[in-house]
Amino acid sequence: MTALQSALDTASEEFAVAKEAMITKLGEVEAEYDKAIGGGGPDKVERHRKRGKMTARERIELLIDEDSAFLELCPLAAWGSDFQVGASLVIGIGVVSGVECLIVANDPTVKGGTSNPWTLKKSFRANEVAFQNRLPVISLVESGGADLPTQKEVFIPGGQMFRDLTRASALGIPTISLVFGNSTAGGAYIPGMSDHVVMIKEQSKVFLGGPPLVKMATGEESDDESLGGADMHARTSGLADYYALDEQDAIRIGRDIVSRLNWKKKGPEPKTEYAEPLYETEDLLGVVPSDLKIPFDPREVIARLVDGSEFDEFKPLYGSSLVTGWAQLHGYPVGILANARGILFSEESQKATQFIQLANRSNTPLLFLHNTTGYMVGREYEQNGIIKHGSMMINAVSNSKVPHISLLMGASYGAGHYGMCGRAYEPRFLFAWPSAKSAVMGPQQLAGVISLVMRAAAEAKGRPFDEEADKGMRAMVEAQIEAESLPMFLSGRLFDDGVIDPRDTRTILGLCLSAIHTNEVEGTANFGVFRM
Ligand code: COA
């Protein structure tokens, strides 16, 4: 084993500038996260409490084991949309009675916990995480169902919420619903599709239609309790398996249910003893230059993420724009692919392909550390087969069966985002640092390309080219692409699982690797036809 030697000068001017820029960006992310935590605002939270209820996050806090971590996913969902940041849903991985579970909690203070298009995307992502990692699903339900004004985008795809739950059950993944309040209309199928259902006295309301709707539909006079109260469901309909006296009692019962699942990880339990990195994680704040055109050595990041900073580099002298090698993180083996000088050439692509195949032979999860402007373009590179070689890497990433985790540290542009296991390549988890940017290409390059295309089109038609208008267009496009490349924007659209503090990266990766090992980790020898 070889321990990495850091050459990072933490006393340098560049380090200080990069660190300050990162801290500023972190502050911006935190301000947005605070909005998600604030739910529907102080009035709505106050009203909720006056009803004797806990908030979604308080329920989760009480549900998970004392002093254990909750890895919240997609907290900035819906950022930049017309909906509240967080999308009226809290999702994440928490340990309940010693079992890592996927927890989904409606935030009833935001529009009655109703599901808008972003809520749906977030709940589908939660289910995906549960499926891929074989995590029991616990739903903390309190939702008014579909967000009615956006029903056209919610109603038809929304069926997947219920389909996912029963498919999880069919795969043997336990599903548990703790119903804290409303679970009406389509929402009634959340407990309906769950293996275990807990309802709370005089608090849970589970019906296909509430009293006004029933009156409209059939003329029948009814009330909440007789239509869908916990008492009725526990004694009469049989939909409730457990009758809780209050919220705390429901959570206690939920914890008991999990403790009786006899749920065992298919992989190793998290280790308690492993070496810490030799260098401070705090330094990660200053590694990425605020100008992403300036390259940085990803070994400085690796040295602060992996156990004992030990990293056995694979092919260090070949394809040096991509660093590949083996390490351990919280005791779990991991193969790392990290961009060094931004551009991926043919050698880097071939090296990555071989490395991914090796990880599949040794059943080793892969970590992709992004800082790439994409595959090299130009006559020489085209003639030498950059498309073939890039395709080879994308083939390997697509067909690899070991779990992947992606971290966007800096740039993640063009097909480089794909080759490095971007969101569409289904990494088990994908996080971004506040310094990250992702788009089809850089803003200046993209505006320049549009400008060249328009100039050529004007020439072809024999029309004069308006230089002034072109300047204005380029400035506008650059600003738009810059804004759309930023991590908060991408996180809002659920293109990542969260924008994280670089200092938390090691802990988060450790939690992810542990969750991943709840399922079997098995590679493959079966890839697509490699175009040589
Ligand atoms: N779609 C969109 N907005 C909704 C909504 C829905 N289905 N249900 C509630 N809201 C909004 C309310 O208009 C209110 O908005 P505001 O914050 O701008 O004032 C906010 O959510 C809170 O609603 P309120 O009724 O004040 O809260 P509550 O906690 O007393 O009750 C519900 C919450 C969900 C029980 C209640 O609003 C309700 O029954 N809604 C209709 C549920 C329904 O029939 N859904 C059908 C889905 S298919």
Report on this structure:
- With 532 residues, the protein is α/β, with parallel strands linked by helices.
- It has three domains: 1-37 and 268-439 and 486-532, 2-enoyl-CoA Hydratase, Chain A, domain 1, CATH 3.90.226.10; 53-259, 2-enoyl-CoA Hydratase, Chain A, domain 1; 443-484, no CATH class.
- It is built from 19 helices and 16 strands.
- The protein has helices at residues 13-37, 42-50, 56-63, 117-133, 151-170, 189-193, 211-218, 224-228, 230-237, 247-259, 299-302, 346-361, 379-383, 386-399, 414-419, 443-461, 467-485, 487-492, 505-516; strands spanning 70-73, 89-96, 99-106, 137-143, 175-183, 196-200, 242-244, 312-314, 322-329, 332-339, 343-344, 366-372, 374-375, 404-413, 429-432, 437-439.
- The strands form three sheets. A seven-stranded mixed sheet has the order 1-2-3-4-5-6-7, with helices on both faces. Strands 8, 9, 10, 12, 14, 15 and 16 form a seven-stranded mixed sheet that branches. Strands 11-13 form a two-stranded parallel sheet.
- 49% of the residues are buried.
- Coenzyme A (COA) is lined by residues 111-112, 114, 144-149, 182, 184-186.
